[in-house]
Amino acid sequence: MDYLFDKLTENIKSHSNIIIMTHKHPDLDGMGSAIALSKIIKSFKKDCYIVFPVERVNVSLEKGLQALDKNGISVNFMKYPDILEVIDEESLLIVLDTQKPMLVENSELLDKVKDIFVIDHHTNSSSHIDNTIFEYINSNKSSIVEIMAEYLKYLNKTLDPVIVTLLSAGMEIDTNSYSLKTTENTFKMAGFLTRLGADSVLKQEILKESKDDVIRRHDYIKNSYFIKEGYLLCDMGEEDINDTVDLAILADELLRFDTVEVSFSVGKLSPTKVGVSARSMGKVSAAVIMSAIGGGGHVTDAAAQFEGKTNAEVIEMIKSVVMEG
Q1: Which of 25, 82, 95, 139 has a CA-to-CA distance to 53 between 20 and 30 Å?
Q2: Residue 299 and residue 282: Cα distance in Å, rounded?
Q3: Tens digit of pLDDT for each residue in 284-316?
Q4: Cα atoms found within 13 Å of the Cα of residue 66, Cβ hemisphere only
Q5: Residue 171 in contact with residue 188, Cβ under 8 Å?
Q6: In contact, 35 and 68? CB cutoff 8 Å
Q7: At what angle do helices 59-70 and 200-207 cross, to 10 degrees?
Q8: Local structure of 209: helix, strand or coil
C-alpha cells in the first residue's frame, strides 16, 4: 500500500490542480471518499474540485451532504461543463470507485485531462479507462473508504469528525454492515475511523430509511423466487422506476434469507434501461455471473445495466448463466 500512497502523494504535489470524479449515481463510499480526499489534497495547499453528479444522489449521501452543510463544512463541488474552466495541462484527474469509462460521472472528462489516476476496489474488468498514469485495483479491499482510511493513517492526518462519519457510514453500507467483503484490515480501518472521531449517532441518522421505502422493498421481497437452489431473484416490475441504490439494497436484503447463496434484483432504471444488482455470500462469484451478461463488479457485489431490454429478457439472461454454471 505504501507504493500506492507514495505515488498518490507524489502526483498530488506535482500537479497544478486536482479533479476528483467517482461513478454515476454516487454513494457514500465513492463520494464520501472523494470528499475526504479533497480535504487531504487541500492540506497539501493544492486546488481541488469534485465533479458533482448530474442525476440525484442516494438518500444516505443526501443526508451526509446535509450534515456537512449544517456543520459549516464546505466542499468544492463543480458541475460539468463549468469544471472545464479550471483544467489545464498540469491538471490531475483522480477517478474513485470505478475503472470503467462508461460508469464515470462524466466520460468526456477522460478526454479533457491528460493525467488520470484510478483507484478501485472492484474486480478487474476488461473495460478500463485508457492512458492512465497510475491504476490501483484491489478487489480484496472492502471499499474505497478502507483505502482512504489507510491513506489517512499513512499520512498521519485527521479530518473533521463529520467527514470521518461519512467515511464510516460508507464502509458500513459497502460491506452490508460488515457481513460481506470484510477482512481483518477492514475492521482495523473501521476502528481507526472511530478513533478519528466517527460519530455513531450521526452515522445511524445518515443510514436510516423512510418507512415507505422499507414497506415498498418488503412488497418486492414477497414476490421473489428461487431460480435455482440457493439463487434468489426479485423482479421489481416494468412499471416502477428505481435507482441503482434501490436495487443494491434489495439484493442485500434478499441475501439475508436462509439457504440463499446468491441474490439478484432486477428493475427499471429508466423507461428504456434495466438494471441488475447481484450479491453473493462468496462461494459463488457474483462478478463472474454479471460479467457473463455484460456487467461486472466484486466477488460478493456486482451489477449490470441494459439499454432497450425488458426485465423478462434480462432475467432470462441471468437464468441461462446460472443454469449453465
Answers
A1: 139
A2: 6
A3: 999 899 999 998 888 888 899 999 999 999 999
A4: 11
A5: no
A6: yes
A7: 140
A8: coil
Strand locations in 190-308 (E):
225-228, 231-235, 262-270, 273-280, 296-297, 301-307
Rounded CA gap, 228 and 285, in Å?
15
Q: How confident is the model at residue 258 (pLDDT cuts 50, 70, 90)?
A: very high
Name the grid cell of 123. Answer: 474486480
Contact 11, 115 (CB under 8 A): yes
Spatial strand order of the sheet with 231-235 comes to 225-228, 231-235, 262-270, 273-280, 301-307, 296-297
Rg, the chain, Cα only: 19
Phi and psi at 14, nearest 5°, equal: -95, 0
d(CA 250, CA 264): 8
Q: Give yes or no for a contact between 208 and 171, defined as CB atoms under 8 angstroms apart.
A: no
CB-based burial, 7-21: b 16+ in 10 Å, e otherwise: ebbebbeebeebbbb
pLDDT in tens, 158-199: 999 999 999 999 999 988 889 888 999 999 999 999 999 999
Find out whether the peptide bond into 81 is cis, omega within 30 degrees of 0.
yes
DSSP states of 163-188: HHHHHHHHHHHHTTTTTSS--HHHHH
Q: State the cell numbers at 165.
A: 462519519
Residue 56's pLDDT band, with cuts at 50, 70 and 90, is low
